Amino acid sequence: MFCMASPCRNLESRDECRSASRTGPRKKRNKTNPPPSGVIAVTQGAGVFHLTKDLVHNRQSFSRWSSPESPLWLLSGRFANNPRGWPVDFPFWLKKMLVDAGLGHWLPGSENISSSAHTIAQCSNRVLTAPFSCLNNMEESDTPPAPDFLNLAGGYLQGFSPPGASLPRSLPEAVCQLPEGSPGLREELSRYMASENQAVYSSEKEIAVTNGATQAIQLALDSLVNPGEQVMLPDPCPALHEHLVRCHGARPIWLQTRQEEGNLCFSLKEFSSQLKKCRMALFANPGNPCGGVIRTPRLQEMTSLARKANAIILWDCTLHELQFDGPPVHPGSLEDCRNYSLIANSLSVSHGLSPTRVGWLTGPEFLLSPCKALLKIQRNGASELGQRILLDHLHSWSRADWNRTLERLDQNRHQAYQRLCGMGLDPFWPAGGIWFWLPVWRRQSAEDFCQQLSQGYQVLLRPGEGFGPSGPGYVRLSFGVEEGRLDEALRRMELYLENKPFEARGPLLRAVA
Predict the structure, then answer these.
(1) Neighbouring residues of 137: CB distance < 8 A, sequence distance ≥ 6
(2) CA 326 to CA 329: how far, in whole Å?
(3) Which contiguous run of DSSP H or E holds residue 343?
(4) Contact, 261 vs 280, CB < 8 A?
(5) pTM of the prediction?
(6) Within a domain: residue 450?
(7) Are residues 308 and 437 in the same domain?
(8) Which CATH number is 412's domain given?
(9) Is 60's pLDDT higher than 50?
């Protein structure tokens, strides 16, 4: 029996505690409410929680914390009312306490960082705030599959060759790299956004080139949001958004959303009340993973409410070019949105330029200036080679060629939707992006669904864990794949569902939600 209690405040009290524990009389245990046998008491403030020794000494049983009978499952209140016992993430204080006690390597998902207790103990608070259990899914989705696998879990286009993507033949011998990006690239980005998105930004004061859209979002968080403040996220949202918010030390506050005919819908009353508690709201448009699009009237209403709440809206527009139902509306083309919002952009997904790792952040000068100042301090901007690749691509890019690529993707979208509905599935209709958001049956978890497809039929899908609180029970399927491979992957899915007993399925999660 031992107790992990809060450390003493000063050296004198620590010495008193040590001497009292060695020489002092042992206090009698309260017989009216004794702790259960074989229990470790974990003290946090005035509350005492009990962890069984089996959970501490047996890694396998410690990982089985999703069961409602597990004490660890009860410690997390995030999904306390979830009857299915979806995986949850421990609160930061509990993670920190276990790590300080030398038990951090027993945390579920800690093996995704390191199996060594010493390594976990060296992690900063920013690393501990990240959800460990989702890191493995992110690594698996980024790992190239074997040649005989059909990958529908990817976050990029496969089998599509957007014109204009080419490597430069040479680089200047003497390059004076500016942290906010080369002037030539910023001027070309300003011209591109004005001609293609009807969004006018000054190349000198309102555009900063970043190391991908990820750094653009992280830069906005680091510059404008303090640790401990709240950031609004829609549910579901890209897995990376929650990771960036938590690693920054901010707290995500979730906005329930729904999708109607490709439009991303939510209650404006709830949005307004939640926004009053937040410093920033982070939205992807089109949405990832569901593909819902926020239209012009809702964009203007959101901006008006954000101004009243003195909050900032950060738009992730990396999928802006991938919209099918109607002309896309860029937030920067609307005057109110442009003057009171930051926009993270990239052509990595839509134009097949993922290896370049180049994105850009745009916004009014009073919002972008702090971001550019921090970028100059950190000195970790995009590489000169990546900037040259993007610049050459923009010079040779044409709207006619891009429209042909969109037509192929749109055909994939319609054909895959019909095939999935014919299998008895109920996918959300995506108005943008390259993914379907699929509910699975209530008697089967999304991870089991993806694992069985991968092991038995060599088809890769992305489970919904990590895409927000509503993600478990859903899978993400990409239709941004070459036509022949997509057709074969869907055929294998049909075989899998035909061989699956009907009684093992149960009702679809979406049908009874």
Answers:
(1) 239, 462, 463, 465, 466
(2) 9
(3) strand 341-346
(4) no
(5) 0.72
(6) yes
(7) no
(8) 3.90.1150.10
(9) no
Are 240 and 350 in a shared domain?
yes
| Inter-residue contact 48 to 30 (CB < 8 Å) | no
- Residues 312-320 have a mean pLDDT of 95
Dihedral sign from CA coordinates of 309, 311, 312, 316: negative
The DSSP code for 2 is -
Average pLDDT value for the chain = 77
Q: Nearest 5 degrees, angle CA 38-CA 42-CA 46? A: 130
Q: Which of 396, 423, 452 is the last residue of a domain?
A: 396
Residues 86 and 156 in one domain: no
Rounded Cα distance, 123 and 298, in Å: 41
Instruction: Give the C-alpha distances (Å, rounded to integers) separating 160 from 223, 321, 350, 407.
Output: 37, 15, 10, 12
- Cα first-last separation, the chain: 45
Regarding whether 434 and 389 lie in a shared domain, the answer is no
Read off the pLDDT of residues 409-435 as tens digits, 9 standing for 90 and up.
999 999 999 999 999 899 999 999 999
Q: What is the mean pLDDT of residues 242-247?
A: 92
Q: What size, in residues, is the chain?
A: 513
Residue 29 lies in a domain: no
Q: Hey, what are 470's tokens?
A: 């509503």
Q: For 59-73, 336-350, 374-388, 433-447, which range has the lowest pLDDT when averaged over its residues?
A: 59-73
Query: Of the given ranges (9-13, 137-141, 260-264, 497-501), which has the lowest mean pLDDT?
Result: 9-13
Q: Are 19 and 8 in contact (CB under 8 A)?
A: no
DSSP per position, 345-373: EESTTTTT-GGG--EEEE--HHHHHHHHH
Q: Is residue 170 part of a domain?
A: no
Question: CB within 8 A of 100, min separation 6: which ones?
Answer: 121
Domain total in the chain: 3
Across 113-143, b (16+ Cβ under 10 Å) vs e yields: beeeeeebeebeeeebbbbbbbbebeeebee
Q: Which residues have a Cβ under 8 Å from the Cβ of 376 and sit 6 or more positions away?
A: 179, 180
Q: Which domain holds residue 48?
A: 3-14+40-128
* More confident of the two residues 166 and 398: 398
Of the three residues 396, 416, 449, the one that is the final residue of a domain is 396
